[in-house]
Amino acid sequence: MLVFKKGCLFVKIIILTACSILFLGSCMKNTDYTPVSKTGFAFDTVVTITVYDKEKSTVLDACFDMCETYEKLFSATREDSDVWKINHSGGAPVAVSFETASLIQAALFWCSQSDGALDLTLLPVAKEWHIKEQMTQVSENPDYEYYIPDASTLDELLAHVNYKSVVIYDEKGTVVAYDETLSKETSYRVQLLDSNAAIDLGFLAKGYIADRLKEFMISEGIESGVISLGGNILLIGEKPDGSAYQIGIQKPFGNAGEIIDTVKETDTSVVSSGCYERYFREPESGRIYHHIFDTATGAPVQNNLLGVTIICDSSLQGDALSTYCYILGLEEGMKLVQSLDGVQAVFVTKDYEVIK
Description:
Low-confidence stretches: 1-28
Helix content: 25-40%
Strand content: 15-25%
Strand order of the largest sheet: 3-4-8-9-12-15-16-17
Largest sheet: 8 strands, antiparallel
Radius of gyration: 21 Å
Shape: globular
Structural class: alpha+beta
Mean pLDDT: 91
């Protein structure tokens, strides 16, 4: 039983998987189906990739090379990344890779689809709250007093939160639409029309990368495998014995490895978002301040949910929908999922009721 954390959404997901050699019938090809895994650290979280084919273990090294490449492009804190250059350009257009343009376009699409409930320009607000840093502070100093930004400070920052200020241009200087197909043969530039704005692609990056890793692994002949980018779980095929992978969903605020529900799935993505991983609790009121922010107020979302898990084909879509459904709350989140084909959801309410 393996426990992983979801990077910027920081939600634990447990993969329950057999770790013994699978003895298959004589009709199967002569392959050693012992699961082989590699674990490392990228995107500010633990990454584990598993293949059920010992002969193809070298694919794991290539996958981690890809992770390093993507981190160099997408990190908002790594100097000289594409995102860092955009945020420090003073509003000037910045040449970016095809991959960065593709991810920014996907982010803009979901920002538009959510009517701005998701917004890639929320970085200044998140920095003001510095949830992760405050968690570290209190772990080192029990007397540390949490900082809660006042409404006027958040209003000033929200004046620069607007996904429509992010523009992608092709090599001819034409604005690229959110739903336009990009070409690897074309060069792209990205501009922040508001020089005080800044972007962060963390709410979609792991989903995008997981999808690219799965494409690569399948092209290398991997038929069974598990990709975990800090909790974005993406399944390749089924287990070699034909059974489904069993995935446990972490109980909010429970002990490590304590699950509240399980799902059995094959060849799909499972992504969770919630308030119970990166947060602090105000001592007097008991109110929880976490990392998923309301773009209308700049404060952490407060509703009737502890977490949302999305099951669908695309890990990027799962990333977007898990956060968006959490922001919407139970009733509106359920309506959204019911309107979509090929999407399932597990909602966990504040009363620990599990609604599928």
